[in-house]
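Supplementary Methods, section 5.1.

A reviewer requested that the exact input to the structure prediction be made available. We therefore reproduce it here, unchanged from the version used in the analyses.
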Amino acid sequence: MPTAPMEQPSAPRTDQAVPPTGAVAPLSALGQVPWSDIRDSTGSAAAIPQLLRSVARGDADTAHGALEDLRARICQYGFVVEQATAATVPFLWELAQLPHVTCRPQILQLLKNIVRARQWESVAAVYPKVLNHRENPVVWERRARQAVRARRGALPSLLAEQDREITRATSELADALGV
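The structure derived from this sequence is encoded token-by-token as follows.
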């Protein structure tokens, strides 16, 4: 009597990154942020997740282009421009720690720029009425800096890397954080 062939387990796909057992996939928490309900410099921050994914998975040109677009949306001209900045910071830290990301030094520089941003506080010191607006940009700036500080535990491993560009950018970020 013939028997049915036994099913063979399928081989895992090799064309996509598979995190090691127990590891969390990069940017897996993106869906936990209500991006369409918060704002960046263009209006809705709904495009930020795709930009972060492009930084994470793109070739060097794609990643750099996406990071520049992201920079314009969250920290343009050294200003923390909207509420989306603080929400984006944890993902920037995550990307800065992924060895395959091609623009890690530039991500660290963006984090440094966010930490150093004090433009809205400076404006509010001269024009206190800024603080009375429903959308208070001084609060955005402070929350963004707090978000960078909250992840500073990543600095030692980044400073220990072999890439001089990464260690230089990390050192500058550490200085900006006062670490």
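The longest helix spans residues 60-74. These observations are discussed further in the main text.
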